């Protein structure tokens, strides 16, 4: 990097007779600046006289620099600035560094102690800066440094006067940064901790030795260089280390429940934990942002209150990223052994997507006592007596992306009395940037808590739909893993019923049961793959009832029926024959028939494969791409499999280039690629990235890896067929 220089610039450094100020003056002087070395020449309490400034000037001059000494007090700051103008005709840089201490505990602090400190630090900085300000404005250039202290930012015993003045300087810099912005005047604050006359007998000797002002001087010099762009920054530096400090604001909280309520001391106490909760605290750049933030929050409060006045609601937030999507997909049985699942498992996949059922999680409001607080008198609900009964999700706005944050409103719309048990119907509205993205509805079955004389049915319940009587149009089966619930829990539902054998047996189950939403996630994936080409954004709504628990390790069999844009489905456990999900459906914007297989080993893939026609197409493509093929120059063998068995073998001899139906005519295969028929169909249909099929197909490389990689582009062109 080119040396950062200050040629042609005039710098005033106050308190430059020793310590930090001296280090700043020497460094700037050595880099071409003409320096006014100001120093009153007093001890650290402001008493005594010396000629330190002359010594510094001499040192600068001895090294070929230009400098002049100034012995005025900063309280008469205009005289110091005059020294610069009189000697050098201009001023570009002002470093307000001069300072003294009058440390005393507050009890012993006199008004004089207070005034003297404020006069030197705060008023002194005001006087010098004010004197230079007009020149800076006129020449549209100025670099100003205020010197603050951690004593000001955090407080320090015995330094009430000094702390107040030091934080005052941050306030001064903040405002001057704004007022100077359009004149290219940058005003920043340094918070140095260095060995100086101020700290000499306060710091332990070893630390005092190490805290060299020379380690801070380059930071300050950079902050007054013409290339420095920040303004209003507070930079803490010591021991060759620098950090930025700024204020942050909590999200805050309304101090009342409804806009019409009074704010009382009690309501303030009730809200206090939210007021001081710093989770998600933000740094606001300017005072206008503070006002906007407040207006925004008040508007949100009004809007929420309108909704809350209809029903008592709980508001929660839910943030997710790619990792959450992948963990969820694993929890609902997506597997790399099925190439079409990769888009749900691999964050760098070109079609990486959330599964549609993932967004049910944002509506769960697991942390809120939403059901508990809505139970009729004498009835209770907690994790020991609830079962997930039904689930609904409907997408209203744009399909959400692969990361985001939602605000969710959760409220109970009805508590039904089903005789011995109760059913709580919980609605959720899920918003992103104030836009409604989706709605969900959960039916929570509360065992043994019925009989309170409530309604048996609700008009507000989204109903289940019986499947057609005919044989299913498609069936997909997939075994859940023994650890399925343990994986699914990581998406947020930590109900011990799904992991703790004692809790499970106490609730009457032989072992921990699978989350209802995990089983639903499996079946929804099967439908999505079969009838929506795995396109999650094609889903409009989904409804299901959990009719019997599923045990991890059991095999789920999803039966599907297409009726218009609705795919009815129900799910059975293969081992017991029991229906576990019933009355379920997925509404799609568009139904695509015979789509991708969802499970690793589908029971019925639906529709015969036209591999011969496909073979002809690939042959044509290879001929079309003969030049490329020759460049690849390899022999590849495709094993065509059906239900796990090799049924056919094609050889792609790119040396020739030709495709053979059967064993290679000549030469040995360089690469053997096993792609299932289904994947090959998808590649041909352009719905499966050939590279993905390629990765999934157990690629055995007999030649070299480069060769295998070169095959990628060729397969890509085949995908366009
Ligand atoms: C806000 C916080 C939320 C927390 C969310 C959840 C946290 C999760 O960790 C919890 C889970 O995932 S639990 C696991 C998944 N769920 C299950 O396994 C439940 C399976 N279902 C059953 O066992 C029975 O259906 C059973 C036991 C539910 C009902 O069986 P029965 O008692 O035999 O009922 P039945 O006699 O057939 O019918 C009685 C009335 O109830 C209605 N009904 C039946 N099943 C229902 C169900 N699943 N959901 C809603 N209502 C249901 C019936 O229609 C009937 O009403 P009516 O007589 O008016 O027709």
UniProtKB/TrEMBL annotation:
PANTHER family: DEHYDROGENASES, SHORT CHAIN, SCP2 DOMAIN-CONTAINING PROTEIN. Gene3D superfamilies: 1.10.287.4290, Hotdog Thioesterase, NAD(P)-binding Rossmann-like Domain, SCP2 sterol-binding domain. Its main location: other. One of its GO terms (biological process) is fatty acid metabolic process. Belongs to the short-chain dehydrogenases/reductases (SDR) family. GO terms for molecular function: 3-hydroxyacyl-CoA dehydratase activity; isomerase activity; oxidoreductase activity. Residues 9-201 form the Ketoreductase domain. GO terms for cellular component: peroxisome. Pathway: Lipid metabolism; fatty acid beta-oxidation. The keyword rRNA-binding does not apply. SUPFAM superfamilies: NAD(P)-binding Rossmann-fold domains (SSF51735), SCP-like (SSF55718), Thioesterase/thiol ester dehydrase-isomerase (SSF54637). It holds the Pfam family SCP2. Keywords: Fatty acid metabolism, Isomerase, Lipid metabolism, Lyase, Oxidoreductase, Peroxisome. It is found in: Peroxisome. It comes from Manduca sexta. It comes from the Eukaryota. This is Peroxisomal multifunctional enzyme type 2.
């Amino acid at each position: 990097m080119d040396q950062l220089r200050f040629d042609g610039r005039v710098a005033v450094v106050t308190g430059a007779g020793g310590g930090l100020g001296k280090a700043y003056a020497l460094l700037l002087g050595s880099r071409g600046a003409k320096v006014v070395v100001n120093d009153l020449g007093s001890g650290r309490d402001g008493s005594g006289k010396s000629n330190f400034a002359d010594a510094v000037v001499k040192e600068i001059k001895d090294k070929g620099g230009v400098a002049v000494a100034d012995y005025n007090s900063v309280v008469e700051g205009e005289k110091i600035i005059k020294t610069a103008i009189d000697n050098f005709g201009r001023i570009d840089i002002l470093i307000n560094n001069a300072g003294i201490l009058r440390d005393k505990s507050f009890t012993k602090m006199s008004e004089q102690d207070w005034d003297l400190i404020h006069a030197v630090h705060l008023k002194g900085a005001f006087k010098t800066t004010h004197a230079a300000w007009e020149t800076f404005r006129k020449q549209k250039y100025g670099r100003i440094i205020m010197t603050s202290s951690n004593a000001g930012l955090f407080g320090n015993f015995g330094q009430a006067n000094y702390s107040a003045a030091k934080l005052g300087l941050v306030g001064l810099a903040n405002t001057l940064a704004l007022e100077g912005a359009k004149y290219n005047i940058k005003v920043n604050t340094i918070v140095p901790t260095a060995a100086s006359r101020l700290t000499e007998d306060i710091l332990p000797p070893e630390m005092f030795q190490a805290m060299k002002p020379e380690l801070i001087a380059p930071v300050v010099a950079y902050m007054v260089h013409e290339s420095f762009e920040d303004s209003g920054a507070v930079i803490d530096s010591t021991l060759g280390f620098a950090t930025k400090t700024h204020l942050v604001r909590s999200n805050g909280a309304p101090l009342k429940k409804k806009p019409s309520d009074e704010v009382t001391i009690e309501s303030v106490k009730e809200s206090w934990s939210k007021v001081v909760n710093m989770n998600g605290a933000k740094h606001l750049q300017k005072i206008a942002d503070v006002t906007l933030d407040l207006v925004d929050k008040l508007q949100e409060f009004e809007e929420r209150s309108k909704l809350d006045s209809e029903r008592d609601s709980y508001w929660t937030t839910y943030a997710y990223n790619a990792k959450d999507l992948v963990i969820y997909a694993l929890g609902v049985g997506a597997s790399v052994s099925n190439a079409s699942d990769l888009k749900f498992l691999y964050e760098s996949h070109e079609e990486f997507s959330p599964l549609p059922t993932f967004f049910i999680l944002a509506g769960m409001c697991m942390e809120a006592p939403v059901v508990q607080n809505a139970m009729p008198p004498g009835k209770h609900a907690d994790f020991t007596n609830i079962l997930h009964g039904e689930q609904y999700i409907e997408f209203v706005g744009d399909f959400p992306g692969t990361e985001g944050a939602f605000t969710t409103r959760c409220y109970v719309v009805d508590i039904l009395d089903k005789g011995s048990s109760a059913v709580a119907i919980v609605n959720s509205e899920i918003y992103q940037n104030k836009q409604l993205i989706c709605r969900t509805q959960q039916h929570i079955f509360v065992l043994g808590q019925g009989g309170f004389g409530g309604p048996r049915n609700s008009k507000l319940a989204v109903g289940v739909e019986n499947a057609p009587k005919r044989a299913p149009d498609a069936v997909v089966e997939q075994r859940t893993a023994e650890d399925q619930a343990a994986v699914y829990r990581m998406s947020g539902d930590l109900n011990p019923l799904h992991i703790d054998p004692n809790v499970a047996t106490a609730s009457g189950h032989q072992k921990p049961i699978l989350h209802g939403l995990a089983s639903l996630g499996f079946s929804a994936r099967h439908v999505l793959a079969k009838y929506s080409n795995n396109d999650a954004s094609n889903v409009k709504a989904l409804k299901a009832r959990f009719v019997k628990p599923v045990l991890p390790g059991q095999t789920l069999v999803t039966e599907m029926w297409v009726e218009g844009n609705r795919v009815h489905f129900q799910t059975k456990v293969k081992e017991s024959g029991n229906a576990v999900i019933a009355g379920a459906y997925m509404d799609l914007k568009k139904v695509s028939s015979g789509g991708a297989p969802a499970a690793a080993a589908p029971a019925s893939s639906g529709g015969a494969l036209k591999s011969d026609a496909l073979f002809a197409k690939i042959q044509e493509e290879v001929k079309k791409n003969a030049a490329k093929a020759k460049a690849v120059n390899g022999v590849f063998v495709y094993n065509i499999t059906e239900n796990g068995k090799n049924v056919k073998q094609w050889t792609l001899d790119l040396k020739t280039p030709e495709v053979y139906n059967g064993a290679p005519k000549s030469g040995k295969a360089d690469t053997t690629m096993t792609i299932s028929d289904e994947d090959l169909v998808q590649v041909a249909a352009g719905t499966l990235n050939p590279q993905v099929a390629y990765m999934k197909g157990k690629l055995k490389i007999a030649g070299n890896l480069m060769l295998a990689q070169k095959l990628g582009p060729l397969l890509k062109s085949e995908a366009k067929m």
